[in-house]
Design goal:
The complex is a heterodimer of chains A (about 300) and B (about 280).
Chain A lengths: L18 H37 L5 H5 L13 H32 L4 H13 L4 H15 L6 H25 L3 H9 L4 H29 L3 H6 L19 H9 L4 H35 L3
Helix pairs in contact in A: 1-11, 3-6, 3-8, 3-10, 4-6, 5-6, 6-8, 7-8, 8-11, 10-11
Chain B lengths: L1 H21 L13 E10 L2 E11 L4 E5 L6 H8 L9 E9 L2 E2 L7 H7 E4 L10 H11 L6 H11 L3 H4 L12 H13 L5 E5 L7 H14 L4 E5 L3 H7 L2 E6 L2 E7 H4 L6 H7 L5
Parallel strand pairs in B: 3-8, 3-9, 6-7, 7-8
Antiparallel strand pairs in B: 1-2, 1-4, 4-5, 9-10
Helix pairs in contact in B: 1-9, 4-5, 4-7, 5-7, 7-8
The chains are: A mainly alpha (about 300), B alpha/beta (about 280).
Chain lengths: ~300, ~280
């Protein structure tokens, strides 16, 4: 092909690289991002430091293992709300995880792509944005009254499960959708059914992402106070739940309760309780990271 | 442009013809009853007809190549045979597609059972992210294979020419294999199901020339036991390995003939244009 035939005029003047300007622009963008990240970290750091100064000195094993004392507030502990929160995490997991995964598997792998399904998807996404107190009211009506569970830890966990179900379904669907289509095709091509394909290939491949999403959703639920107040968690308790039908307290509620009291002892107690709740959240997040790492080591791709 | 492409086309025709004639003479029974027969097969995605009124017989124990430019409907046609198109939204199939006298699209036909008998190898190697053993064993397992699984895996890997390379690391991830090895593993996975037909959708398009040569040799061996349908955009490959070649263009079947005839004396001018490299 000769020069004359060429449609493009190969003269360098057509390019204006402006390399210096592009580099400066890139540098500025990087700086802006760094500042944003710094701001987020700074706020969290200030918060932590503030709370630690208030209640850090109260943290001890005794604080975790003793009940609240009305006679000597500074001798109080968070045994009851801590155990309430642990019960909530366990029961919410049992209720929300299987239902969430099953619903997502149906929607992503089995459901026909119809207008009705699109409407359903849209609604689930909208449900994720419903204020948590509304789930509390729903829980009060459905679980506490209709199902006659009373103001029990099971009713509270059921309300929290409803709260995180939309997020659990959405994250699980995303995890399933991220599994390459070629794996499904390979499975179908050797005469596998949909269920066999999902069970042996799609779910195992998506599991780390599903787990992470679930635990993040759970840790969000752990910090909720509003739905639990509506369902009827108690702020003052000298018992721990021994069955799902027992009454309960929870850390966010205790924090809310103490923070409303004026005397300086309660400011200290509030700070200490916040630190305990943060510890629980950190624990669940660490669990998520651990599970993810473990699965990624086992995963063969 | 025209002045440049003429000599290239001439070389290519010569090349294809020599490829065809270089192959050992095979006796092809053109009268044996077809394994797959399509009658007026039309496949639409929504309102777009990807395959139009294709009537084609696939004969047993032969390699039938389907060639044609990108978007001519050859892959869609191939995926219709084992109903892989079922998973695509808005696909509509009309006409008839018979597999050993059974209507593939009849309401009573179970696609899961059908795919056990019609295996498939895909364009990109797609092993399961599991061990080499599990890749081959899984299909038989989920289909209730009652024989000795380890023997079946070994035999399948031997047939796919992969056994010697992987026999000491059957528990390794299939994804540690090279692309060519992965594709032969996918072939082993398909033949472990003891299918009657093997559909291959451009099986070498992501492989290097050496891996391609190995897979082509394999296809040549496989046809003693299986009916192979090979979709390829590579005319040299069709000339090298196929017994019969079908040429498709814009969803239509232009011409089907013995490979040796189609590449030397095509009847349709469009085939002539395509194999001489005038388009596509």
């Amino acid at each position: 092909m000769s020069q004359a035939d060429s449609a493009i005029d190969w003269q360098p003047v057509q390019f204006r690289p402006r390399l210096a300007a592009r580099r400066v622009l890139g540098g500025l963008f990087g700086l802006a991002c760094r500042l944003a990240a710094l701001a987020a970290g700074l706020v969290l750091g200030c918060l932590l430091w503030h709370v630690w100064r208030q209640g850090g000195h109260l943290l001890s094993l005794r604080f975790l293992t003793s009940f609240e004392s009305t006679l000597d507030p500074l001798a109080s502990g968070v045994k009851s709300p801590l155990w309430g929160t642990v019960w909530l995490i366990g029961l919410t997991t049992i209720l929300a995880v299987p239902v969430g995964i099953a619903a997502a598997v149906y929607l992503e792998e089995f459901a026909p792509r119809s207008r009705l399904m699109q409407l359903l998807h849209l609604n689930i996404a909208n449900l994720a944005g419903v204020p948590s107190v509304v789930y509390g009211l729903l829980g009060l009506t459905v679980f506490v009254r209709w199902c006659a569970l009373g103001r029990s830890v099971l009713a509270g966990a059921a309300a929290l499960a409803l709260l995180i179900l939309p997020v659990a379904i959405i994250t699980t669907r995303e995890a399933l959708a991220a599994v390459p289509q070629s794996i499904r095709q390979a499975a179908y091509s050797v005469g596998a059914t949909r269920w066999q394909t999902v069970r042996d290939h799609v779910l195992p491949a998506a599991l780390p992402a599903i787990m992470t999403g679930m635990i993040l959703a759970l840790s969000r639920a752990v910090g909720e106070a509003a739905p639990l107040i509506v369902v009827g968690a108690v702020a003052y308790s000298r018992t721990v739940p021994t069955s799902p039908l027992d009454g309960f307290s929870a850390l966010p509620i205790k924090i809310f309760n103490w923070s409303e009291l004026a005397s300086p002892e309660f400011v200290q107690l509030t700070g200490a309780a916040i630190l305990v709740l943060l510890g629980v959240l950190l624990g669940t997040s660490a669990l998520a990271v651990g599970i993810r790492a473990w699965y990624q080591r086992r995963r063969l791709w | 442009m025209v002045t440049v492409s003429r000599p290239v086309a001439a070389t290519q025709t010569l090349n294809l013809a020599s490829l065809v004639s270089a192959r050992p003479e095979t006796i092809i029974d053109q009268n044996s009853s077809p394994v797959i027969r399509t009658e007026d097969l039309t496949i639409r995605y929504g309102s777009f007809a990807a395959v139009r009124n294709v009537t084609l017989d696939i004969l047993p124990k032969q390699v039938t190549a389907i060639i044609g430019p990108s978007g001519c409907g050859k892959s869609t046609f191939l995926r219709a045979i084992n109903r892989m198109n079922d998973f695509v939204d808005g696909v509509n199939v009309s006409g008839r597609l018979m597999f050993l006298g059974q209507d593939v699209y009849a309401p009573g036909t179970d696609p899961v059972a059908l795919r056990r008998r019609i295996g498939m190898v895909f364009q990109k190697p797609n092993p399961f992210p599991k061990s080499i053993f599990k890749n081959v064993a899984w299909g038989p397992q989920v289909n209730g294979y009652s024989g000795n699984l380890a023997e079946l895996v070994e035999e399948s890997l031997r047939k796919a020419g992969l056994w010697d390379e992987v026999k000491d690391k059957l528990d390794h991830s299939a994804l540690t294999l090279s692309g060519g090895q992965q594709q032969r593993l996918c072939i082993a996975r398909a033949i472990a199901m003891q299918p009657e037909v093997l559909l291959m959708d451009e099986p070498c398009s992501s492989l290097d020339p050496i891996a391609t040569a190995r897979v082509e040799d394999l296809i040549d061996e496989l046809k003693s036991q299986y009916t192979v349908v090979l979709v390829t955009h590579n005319m040299q490959q069709a000339a090298r390995v196929s017994d019969r070649t079908a040429f498709m263009l814009m969803g239509q079947l232009v011409e089907v003939d013995l490979t040796s005839r189609l590449f030397t004396t095509p009847h349709d001018p469009r085939t002539q244009d395509y194999i001489t490299g005038r388009f596509g």
